[in-house]
Amino acid sequence: MNNKWEIGLAARTTRITVEVGGYRWRVHGAISGTPSRWNVHLAELLGSERLDVSVNRDFLLKMREAVAKALDLQVEAVKRITADLILA
Predict the structure, then answer these.
(1) What does 4-29 look like in DSSP terms, one character per residue?
(2) Is 25:18 a contact under the CB 8 Å cutoff?
(3) Quick one: CA dihedral 60, 47, 23, 29, positive or negative?
(4) Number of helices (H) and strands (E), helices first, in the chain?
(5) pLDDT in tens, 10-44
(6) Quick one: pLDDT band at residue 5, thresholds 50, 70, 90?
(7) Structure pTM?
(8) Pick from 28, 24, 26: which is nearest to 41 by CA?
(9) What is the number of structural domains in the chain?
(10) Long-range pairs for 69-73 at CB < 8 Å and ≥24 separation?
């Protein structure tokens, strides 16, 4: 991290662990935007070498719901998660 902006972003990043599709995920994200919503930066697969489920619209919705539940938020308060944010 070379500048103050990057350091500030790292300080605000929250990491949570959720279970979706029978797998555990470490989800990195933070509150951003107007109106404020929780934004997922990365979801990384934990404890498995390989993912045997499709990362489709249904899976991404379940991931969003799990994040909202873990943070005690309404689903609408979590931005839509896209497949390019999944590290598996």
Answers:
(1) HHHHHHHHH-EEEEEEETTEEEEEEE
(2) yes
(3) negative
(4) 2, 4
(5) 557 899 999 999 999 999 999 887 778 999 999 99
(6) very low
(7) 0.83
(8) 28
(9) 1
(10) 69/18, 70/16, 70/17, 70/18, 70/27, 71/14, 71/16, 71/38, 73/38
Range of the domain at 14: 4-87
CB distance 86 to 55 below 8 Å: yes
First-to-last alpha carbon distance for the chain, in angstroms, is 25
Model pLDDT, residue 49 = 80
Both tokens assigned to 3: 């500048």
- CA-to-CA distance for 37 and 56, rounded, in angstroms? 22
Cα–Cα distance measured from residue 82 to residue 17, given in angstroms and rounded to the nearest whole number: 18
Q: State both tokens at 35.
A: 């109106």
List the structure tokens of 77: 């308060």
